[in-house]
Amino acid sequence: MRASRFFISTLKEAPSDAEIVSHKLMMRAGMIKRLGSGIYTYMPVGLRVIRKVEAIVREEMNRAGAIELLMPLVQPAELWQETGRWDKMGDELMRVKDRHGRDFAIQPTSEEVVTDVVRSEIKSYRQLPVNFYHIQTKFRDERRPRFGLMRGREFTMKDAYSFDRDLEGMQKSYQTMFDAYTRIFNRFGLKFRAVAADNGAIGGTGSHEFHVIASTGEDALVYCPDSDYAANMEAAEAVASGARGAATQALTKTSTPGKTKCESVAELLGLQLSQTVKTIALTVESEEGKKSFWVLLLRGDHELNEIKVSKVAGLKDFRFSTEAEILEVFGTVPGYLGPINTKLPVNVVADRTVANMADFVCGANEADFHYTGANWGRDVPEPLVADLRNVVEGDASPDGKGVLAIERGIEVGHVFQLGTAYSEAMGATFLDEGGRPAPLQMGCYGIGVTRILGAAIEQNFDDKGIVWPDSIAPFELVLCPMGLDRSEMVKEATEQLYAELQAAGIDVIVDDRGLRPGAMFADWELIGVPHRVVIGERGLKEGNLEYQGRRDEAASAVAVADMVAFIK
Ligand code: ATP
Ligand code: MG
Ligand code: MG
Ligand code: MG
To answer: Is 0.90 surpassed by the pTM of this model?
Structure first.
């Protein structure tokens, strides 16, 4: 590639809405361009990285025996109604109508469509196992799109779906995907960790998240340095104390005789009411009319994330009895939010009133309506009372092999054992060896392709810009000729090296824009190309070129004749 014929557009300053380093650097490096909230154009430099990520994912998925197809972006509502997700997904599901007034979803994921494919295509156990995947645009109307590609509304995901004849087969397919993911993230050159996850709302038996380790990550990961125990905070807390279960149970039951509900929950959680719990009243308005709730606030650091779904269509908002009251309490105390005496879920609107709230677990008086990971923002102060967290650094690891450590991560992949939830809802069966129909055992496996870009940058940057790992860099190497227009010697050497590097299969760009060295270097350091070769007359006269790796302090001289071998 020649820079003069490519499109490079760098900025000195990041736009003010970019909060975290990866978003800032992607904007400054001209990788993405904002079109609307959570919606971006992938500019040429950014798209090159996306394509490299996709290529690695595709290669490893194919190697693991998964088969690529491409399922539609726009999917009929009827399929989503079959599984009940048309209602369950709430506002995150983008809905559109066609000219005939028929309802469609813009896919946030594709379980329904792939299950529809297999229920008509898979007839016999002889066709199993099978694993279909695609790399396709997704749309999720996220409550709070932010951080550029990290939490977009439109984004690219690789999603794969395995189908097996029995549980054992599904677990094998799951392991195959787990191993493929490990290879994929290794090939990206990123530091990552696979952690056990709760598969909450989706149901099923097993789930792991893959996280890129970064101090700016939204998720807390719990692991034991002396063993292979690793879990996300949600799963770790569930194991550690059963507190979440206890809370759900308490909310499900009426209060212990002689105690208020709030006191009962506090008791179950082993907390001192006076220190940790406050209650306030609030009112929810929904299609079913007004309902009164109370809210229990526990001080403590619950896992950051977002409320996943609103289970009741039409439930738009909830209001506190007095705003001053809620601000006073929510402004300072992270905690537990639990409506009682209703089956309605809490559906919090991130508006002015709740902007200061964070670290909540939300629940209702039914297990199924219990949510963890409510989050209204990351600009919130650290929890006031960290020691009330259910899992803290230094706790004994559940496997008894050491103590727990905590670090932060960015969820870039997720593997799930779904079991028969979807195949039963949609009637996806096959005939077993005895000729009897049985439901397909399913697994699903996602990778946030575009989120990888943000995560990679959060892990790899310095004050000059991005530092891409070789495998996903927009270009592996940049040639920077000095005085290209003045010096025949530089011009010739540049052309020759450029041709040789291309022939050697190196993804090289030559900067023939005629910029001054300072501006030229600054651009490539910002864009994060991992290797740079400077071609100047002075060096050439001694038979040398200057090589500098993106993380190197200084350049080193490499003989012209050795350069291609040196780079390879
Ligand atoms: P999160 O917890 O961050 O909301 P999720 O658990 O809802 O993610 P999954 O349904 O597990 O996401 O989807 C698989 C992968 O898709 C995630 O691991 C993540 O890498 C990616 N992903 C999910 N939501 C987004 C988004 N809004 N923008 C970019 N990537 C996303
Ligand atoms: Mg999500
Ligand atoms: Mg998640
Ligand atoms: Mg997930």
So the answer is: no
